[in-house]
């Protein structure tokens, strides 16, 4: 009943604090024979690495991942894989003030109320640095998926920054890697840059909405009830720091649809597989994948570490004002994109293994 | 790794199909000495019972719960509690057509693709009847909460039906039990009645948004990372049939806020407990409860069993049209209200027990 | 983290008390398409049914199992299977005395100390009646094994009653079903009958050693570390009422062997599979099956419900003497045989599913 | 469903191979506020460190443990604790031969058959080096027990080496730390020294029986069924490398007792707590602790890495002979003593936390 793990058969337990010696992930249930090395995982880590442009924290964290176990001569052995990332650039002094004050909107106060002790340096365990371990584990999951089910593509991107939504009519996959916001809309990228520059200079921050899509997921993955594919995706995304909402397919907007409008009509495709007239379901019906794109969105709240003064209290209960200096992300949603991709990869792999285990090839054919 | 269970220490495994002999819940980790009887659980079950007004299915399901284990002389013994509900009114003939055709927007096709066999009668395991077992287990969780932490109040209500949102300025707790929609807004109740009447007569259905609030939850509940209170709530709500989105506090709207606007400022209350200027966080920071109201919302899609003809295919892959006769809910969101309450009760109790186990009284005081 | 379940992917949660309305097992992770009906499960239940000869309790318990979910038209659907056994012959008055007194060697006192409440009727949850649910679940596991891996044979038998051990030189499989003790040694069966008759008449009871063998288990099952095949078998057997010791292969006697004597030498068989010169390992090396017979033994202590007077105390702490009337097994080891078989079947199936899930066909060939 | 973890609330996942860069344990569910540092854990690690006398392998492994997370300013924070031990002295060449040959009695062949790949250097994951991580985690569990339930003492010792059993009449606690075998019998220590010297010189090895006792464990710990205290202890001990049998209290000998002899009679002690005339139960009744000493024994088979030639096969299936050079323990049971203590500490702590969580102070009083 590990409360610091996620996944069923493919199980990831992350550990480590922002300013401890290291952080990492213990990954259990890895299929054997998967070709993987540190470089393959580093590729994904570098995408969330801070300090790459002016829109993310200027902390210099090389985030070099080491594989300490479970890989032999370039292949996974089927035993647990330990992924470790050393913490380097740690200006603890930046955090001295928050040792006594609780940042509004931050976990400072709840960690204290729960545990009676907390590592206040950089948020300790509640720091978004924890997500580096997820991204490393997600890279391992991607390698395993490529080995077991080639053709599954997982892609994340931002669809909204603050009040500004991208224009779906301009959706362009090729744009995603072309701008610092991973937004598939060149014009939005430009507008958002201006918006975020002004916000950053004012010492404020803002939220965002990230969408993650998995293409090529076979039909039949998911385990009702309660290990539904959408249930596990909702838990995976909501477990990411600062996430306040999760949507599958139509998400909250499904409330506004009639049954007639919401029902994705079914036809037979030329390849003998079912095709759908639409994908309101986000690729999941009854907790099981349909074979369509699996579409998940999540909202990331603005970081609470800002230069705007806010009213708060100290551990001893005195009223005070707080301004959080230090180097923080004006929009943490940007770096949440590779994290969302990683969680998607872990959940899809987990359910692929679960399906192999309980069902094997018993699934039903159509036609 | 039960995929048919939820919860950690307080663990609920539901079982049963819509048209099998019975369905129920096996509840593990129940604290001993809790006063409970079938009547107390029946109270909650009756709230989701169909056929109570013209806005829910006219199926007659008495949904009588029996306690088969774990209770002795009116008190829980600490051993597993088995809650069983016999299935009665079963017009299997109503479902003969869908044995061969897949309802668009329904789990028919994915269950077939996953398992190669399915109990098509009334949706079998994918039927919303499964939620009756959740409500019974939720009643048990409420009794345990009253025993261990008196004063926690859990209340669910609808805030949106189709495109029609309630008016928060008219929010009135006393209205919730006064209308068939459990909406805390008398005017909305009237408008929705007209809207749903028309929709029902047209053989269509519609979605809804349900909000569930837990008041009096102590600060410190939740287990980062990944057994966060919000993570478990997101999983619990997303696991409910037809749910497509889950929000905590501001939810998806958090994306539009600045850090300055989102940060709930902290003050000391007269009772020596922290108070907050607002509750954008929905009572949870860093996955741990703050002591404010825990606020969760979820969107329920419209039922896919409608009288509107839709294009689909048969098991043999032939194109066809389907109209789902039978007695279906025009808005399943209505009956999702007591289900959401039940899930909230189970999750809060589970985390209360987890906190007692790992933390005990080590939590930090303020002031 | 259900504490009332065992298994990983194939997961069994038993519930119910000796004198409640019913007891049963909620079985999760059942593969779909397995042909099974109540009669097939009843076959195994009848083997542990009491009152079949003078060596077991004379309680009349028909132990009729009902399948309430997860089976449709004679086949498993892949959803949870609920197995229920109604309690019938319940002479609660027989147990009135032990409501206040603690039986030495029984769970009476520990259940009271743990829970502060207990169902004293027939031992409540601590009654060996709970094992009926295990046998029903084991029958389901056997059916799934026959479906997925035909040729696995699981057989249990007694090898020792009190101080009397069977003679291995007379080992005869065909004898097992020929005597009330399931001992593969006709002469031992006769001797034990005389011994147990005398013991029973004196109002005493005695322990036993049961051995369970699984033949035809493929090499490669088991998940080091800690889901080893032997670890899970040890837990499964130790969880049976009254079991105090578990052995794999040589068991405790392995301590007396030298490395030279203990090492089962390896050769190639005519079928291209490895063969071994001996099976000190009991078919398990490093927690993984070798393909040899999986051999487990467990010791069952004598029942503590005897007619011999013993010194004890009451709930109020007063010294007293107790004689337990009622109809008890003089040697509970006899009825533990089918229970041990059931646990073996569940563990083997669970690890077969786990292996399919994580490993698939990645296992290594020899030659 | 981590298969590389043990424990429920206090959960330990070990990772690492014998000749990888490092190995360790990820420990979840640690209570906060526990004073601990690397030195405290090192104390226990040093007890199992090899090369301390001529009866253990002469490998030089400093086994220095590092705490990478979960401890801040000398106290546990309640977040996951990562314990890492770097591998140093690695003469991989010693193991070159076994890359192609399977050692009889060793996991070489089963790892290959399961995974199709294995780290053959020093046994990789199947190496007893893995137990170093357990001992480190056990040290953490001891510190938590001292913090939460002072007065619990956990002690392990050898009671048998090969055919030679200690003499219980000479049992002397003070002797345990006085001899290389941790045997509480000075005369046995001398005899065993001579016996093992001869065995070692002959290139052979031998098994042993280890007993672990926990004193001061409160009554009421354990969670029937299936998280029984004895079930979890059996699993914990059987999961240790080379263990083939586990006993609680009388263990296998319980089979020889009558109910009259086996029933530990109950009396009231002067302190108002129950006392027992004997402890055949090993401190556990119905899976729940009685308050008496918890007594567990386990048998360790002889190491299969010996200088005696044995017949075996190669990966390609050719018959061959093998002699395992290198520096191996003539009796691995010696170093299993601190490992058994560590497992006992982890299980007791886990059940203490579980009891706090589900039961709190609801337990029943006597008198």
From TrEMBL, chains A, B, C, D:
InterPro entries: Chorismate_synth, Chorismate_synth_AroC_sf, Chorismate_synthase_CS
Reactions the enzyme catalyzes: 5-O-(1-carboxyvinyl)-3-phosphoshikimate = chorismate + phosphate
Positions annotated to bind FMN: 125-127, 241-242, 286, 301-305, 327
Biological processes per GO annotation: amino acid biosynthetic process; aromatic amino acid family biosynthetic process; chorismate biosynthetic process
Keywords, comma-separated and alphabetical: Amino-acid biosynthesis, Aromatic amino acid biosynthesis, FAD, Flavoprotein, FMN, Lyase, NADP
Gene3D superfamilies in UniProt: Chorismate synthase AroC
Positions contributing to NADP(+) binding: 48, 54
Bound cofactor: record note: Reduced FMN (FMNH(2)).
EC number: 4.2.3.5
Names of required cofactors: FMNH2
Keyword Amino-acid biosynthesis: yes
A Pfam family this chain is assigned to: Chorismate_synt
GO molecular-function terms, A-Z: chorismate synthase activity; FMN binding
GO CC term (a single one): cytosol
This protein's record includes keyword Flavoprotein: yes
Function (record text): This reaction introduces a second double bond into the aromatic ring system.
Recorded family membership: Belongs to the chorismate synthase family.
Assembly information from the UniProt record: Homotetramer.
Listed name of the protein: Chorismate synthase
Organism of origin: Pseudooceanicola nitratireducens
Taxonomic lineage of the native organism: Bacteria, Pseudomonadati, Pseudomonadota, Alphaproteobacteria, Rhodobacterales
Gene responsible for this protein: aroC
